[in-house]
Amino acid sequence: MSTNIALAITGASGALYGVRVLAALLERGCDIDLVVTDFGRRLLRDELGEAAAVDRLADYLARRYGPRVAEGRVALHSNKDLGARIASGSGGADAMVVVPCSMKTLAGIAHGLSRNLVERAADVMLKERRPLVLVPRETPLSLPQLRNMLLCGEAGAHVLPAMPAFYQLPRTLDDLADFMAGKVLSALGFKHDLYPKWEPR
């Protein structure tokens, strides 16, 4: 089970998925190295409001998800900081999640470009054979985007598209976010009860 997680929020629609995964990991006592891209910062404000801006994110998480988010710790990094710890294969995180993952970020990871901290940290996960979970959120998908997903999968990433199920009869957006966060936790090896297991009738 991974306890030091690099988490990136990029500019694809789906800010709620990103903050729910962040909260769920913090509730489990994880140390989070958080990177929010420029468009990810705009995404948080556009989709969740000014209260979810990066400089207010800790308070937002506590109000929305409760005091258990204080079980973990967050270190915020600039996406321009290629000297950050998570950019190094000799240190780095135990695992990484990019949620939501924009198509631009997906392409950069697929082709090993390492132009910024998100891409470099993801490249470290792949080269060191550590878990990398990518949560792309886009529709419809172009052929280059599909090919980039294939490249990431072939390189060892866990491609987990933001496609929530409905067998659990969700009633709110939070229910859908819980489902996706649960899928990410499962991919990282965490047990959870964020959504009910499928029970055939």
Please give a structural write-up.
- By secondary structure, the chain is an alpha/beta fold.
- It has a single domain, classed as Rossmann fold (3-Layer(aba) Sandwich).
- Helices cover 40% and strands 15% of the residues.
- It contains 7 helices and 6 strands.
- The chain has a 6-stranded parallel β-sheet with strand order 3-2-1-4-5-6, with helices on both faces.
- Strand 1, helix 1 (15-27) and strand 2 form a beta-alpha-beta unit.
- The protein is globular, with a radius of gyration of 16 Å.
Number of helices: 7
Please give the share of residues in helix.
40-55%
The CATH homologous superfamily is termed Flavin prenyltransferase-like
Number of strands: 6
Encode the helix/strand succession as letters: EHEHHEEHHEHEH
- Estimate nothing, just give the exact number of structural domains: 1
Instruction: Please state the second-level CATH architecture.
Output: 3-Layer(aba) Sandwich
Shape: globular
Helical/strand content category: alpha/beta
Give the terminus-to-terminus CA distance.
Answer: 32 Å
Mean pLDDT: 96
Strand content: 15-25%
CATH class: Alpha Beta
CATH topology: Rossmann fold
Instruction: Give a quick account of the main beta sheet: strands, pairing sense, barrel closure.
Output: 6 strands, parallel
Rg value: 16 Å
Biggest sheet: strand arrangement: 3-2-1-4-5-6
